[in-house]
Amino acid sequence: RLYQVPYEMPDCEGASESRTLHLVGDFSAPAEFFVTLGVFSFLYTMAALVLYLRFHSLYSDNKKLPFADFCVTVCFTFFWLVAAAAWGKGLSDVKAATRPSSLIGAMSVCQGQEAVCNAGATPAMGLANISVVR
Asked: Which stretches make up the MARVEL domain (predicted)?
């Protein structure tokens, strides 16, 4: 929800005044899908572990239970792949929306001929990139 993040832009009309701008974009859906699927996967894994260890005879005697377990596992695997791809796309969109050159280009004060605008430091995205690889 980048639109909730404000940043200050200097106003050339008054030296001490500044305007508050907001970033553009809402990329929360892919991240929420990724986290929700991770939580459900964890809960299913814990339930399956209890079933395997505590009720082993029920699991081995019933012919439909292992197949149902396999089908649920295949579904979770597919959704995990989709969620990882969605999170990767969401992260690249966040990077594009918060790129310093994009932010400077959107500031009207930096469009003048005499204006010299620079971003300062480049944001570190290493840990965010690693989250997609996992």
From this structure: 1-134
Instruction: Give one DSSP letter per residue of 39-102, joined into a string.
Output: HHHHHHHHHHHHHHHHSHHHHHH-SHHHHHHHHHHHHHHHHHHHHHHHHHHHHHHHHHHT-HHH
Q: In the chain, what are the domain boundaries?
A: 27-110
Cβ atoms of 90 and 31 closer than 8 Å: yes
pTM score above 0.90: no
Per-residue pLDDT of the chain (134 residues; tens, 9 = 90+): 666 667 666 666 555 667 676 676 778 888 888 889 999 999 999 998 998 888 888 888 888 988 998 999 999 999 999 988 888 888 888 787 777 777 777 676 677 677 677 766 677 777 676 766 66
Q: Residues of 55-78 as b/e, b for ≥16 C-beta within 10 angstroms?
A: eeeeeeeeeeeeeeeeeeeeebee
